[in-house]
């Protein structure tokens, strides 16, 4: 471990030494960074989606329409603020605040630059990070979980059916996708040996974790889209069946707070993905090899912003290309795909780390891990074969057994048959020749 990595591992003591005015400046910078990024992201999203759909997009307010988000914010603040009669007024007013405030809190532990390479602000040396914790990533998970309460409470307190359904969907979606997100983080903890964000970035000096842990990165990408309720996983506010979801009964500044919380959460999860998997503030590979000063001074802030913007473009690209999934597909992806895959991947990562700690060579590790994967696949294949045989045997027994008589009109109205039941044969209408023959026989009689 070289000097920079060792320094970053011991530099948690650097945080908390700044004077109060410098802490205030850094906090204001974090807030301003989120706000400016949100304003830019809204315009960028509308421009990119318009370009993908062969439209123009915002082009009136400011140069190239860049002030459109600011104009929309002013418009929302000046609109009439309504409160529905059947709403729980206290919770109804507090819900947007509960959704917005935790969205800003997570940025406090995100490193914008190396802790060992301090910058100078008004003559004071300080790291490019507001603070850091030994459990910084768990702090991010906690703030993200609290923000969901705002959406759930907004749906419940509105006193309306559609917002309540949107809030319940958001709660189920959060539970489903935060499990897979936490397991994906666990793989990073195993490799870095720390939950501190600055330490995790310091451990990626030689190789980013997106290369060492590609499955964890893919799982996190899926969970961060579900966590922020973005298309194609925007079930809590799907206008096709819920009018507007949890924010249907909101207007004016309270509605703007929900929109602000959504975009701030997008920036936050993109910053977390950059920190844990994409090297954080580190310069990309071609630049870092021939430029020694790429990771010093204020330059790390530029690399960090570029990576975050690329992930935000990924959000926009998904919204402009993929249709909204059904709710059962959303739950199936979370519980039957992401969670099992993340658990199996975590066991493989833990096995590899344990073998490396025992000084096994690379070939032995590949042999052991590959053998375990092959054995698991064989067991699953055998299970599927015997399960299919059992299902076929039961189906054959049901078909061979006596069929229960089924009367679709027994209850006074038609009902469909249950499994194992059959509808009675429909009486065939006699043909014209048969009707003429019957009439002729009646005449002869």
Give a written overview of the molecule.
With about 450 residues, the chain is mainly α. It has one domain. The chain contains 16 helices and two strands. The protein has helices at about 5-10, 20-50, 70-80, 90-105, 135-155, 160-190, 195-200, 210, 215-225, 240, 250-275, 285-290, 300-320, 325-355, 360-400, 430-445; strands at about 120, 125. Strands 1-2 form a two-stranded antiparallel ribbon. Strand 1 (about 120) and strand 2 form a beta hairpin. The radius of gyration is 30 Å and the shape is globular. The protein starts with a helix and ends with a helix. Mean pLDDT is about 85; it is low at about 1-10.
Strand order, largest beta sheet: 1-2
Average pLDDT reading: 83
The tally of structural domains comes to 1
**How are helices and strands ordered from N to C?**
HHHHEEHHHHHHHHHHHH
DSSP strand tally: 2
Question: What is the gist of this entry?
Answer:
The protein has 445 residues and is mainly alpha-helical. It is built from 16 helices and 2 strands. The model is unreliable at 1-10 (pLDDT under 50).
Keyword list:
quinone, NAD, 1% strand, mainly alpha, 65% helix
Per-chain topology:
Blueprint: H1 3-10, H2 20-52, H3 68-78, H4 89-105, E1 119-121, E2 124-126, H5 136-157, H6 161-192, H7 197-202, H8 209-212, H9 214-227, H10 239-242, H11 252-277, H12 285-290, H13 299-321, H14 327-357, H15 362-400, H16 432-444
Antiparallel strand pairs: 1-2
Helix pairs in contact: 2-11, 2-13, 3-11, 4-5, 4-11, 5-6, 5-11, 6-9, 6-14, 9-11, 9-14, 11-13
